Amino acid sequence: MSDRASAGPPAVKDEDAEHPISSAWRPMLCEVVRSFVDGDYGLAKGVGGVEPVSAETAEHIRSYIADYGATLVELPDDTWQTSVAQWMGTHWDILVDLWTAEEGRSDMVLGGWVAETEAGPRLTIHMVYVP
Question: pTM for the complete prediction?
C-alpha cells in the first residue's frame, strides 16, 4: 500500500452514518473508473480486488453512461470529498461520485459494496446511476 493510501481515512464500521471512502480502496476504484473510461465496462482486463462484472451489469453501465450524454473521465482527487461508504453489518455500501469532461462532478455515481476478506477488501460493482 502506498503512503498516500495509508495516510487517508480508514474504513469505518458505523451503521448510523456515512463516512469517506477508505483510502485503501481508492486506487482500486480509480482503476475501475479508468476501465470504464476506456470502454471496458465488464473489466475484462481485471482489476485487483474487484469481483468480475456480469455481462448484464456491464451492458447496463455502458448504456447508462451513453444515455447520460457526457464524457466520463478518470476520478480526480476531489471525488473523495463527496463519495461515501456506510457499514451495513456485513459490508460497506459505497457511492462514488463520477466526473465528466463537460460537467466536472456529474450526477452519476458508481454504486457497489466492499466486503472484508482474508485477502483484503473485495469490491462488488452493482451499477452506475443517478440517485
Answer: 0.92
Unique residue bearing C-alpha cell 461515501:
84
pLDDT digits 0-9 by tens, 13-67: 999 999 999 999 999 999 999 999 999 999 999 999 999 999 999 999 999 999 9
The topology under which CATH files domain 3-129 is Nuclear Transport Factor 2; Chain: A, (3.10.450)
Cα 51 to chain centroid distance, Å, stands at: 12
Note whether 118 and 101 are within 8 A (CB): no
| Predicted pLDDT of residue 118 | 95
C-alpha dist (Å) from residue 72 to 10, 19, 39, 50, 131? 27, 25, 10, 20, 17
Whether residue 107 contacts residue 100, with contact meaning beta carbons closer than 8 Å, is answered with no
Q: Which long-range contacts (CB under 8 A, 24 or more apart) does 40-43 make?
A: 41/65, 43/125
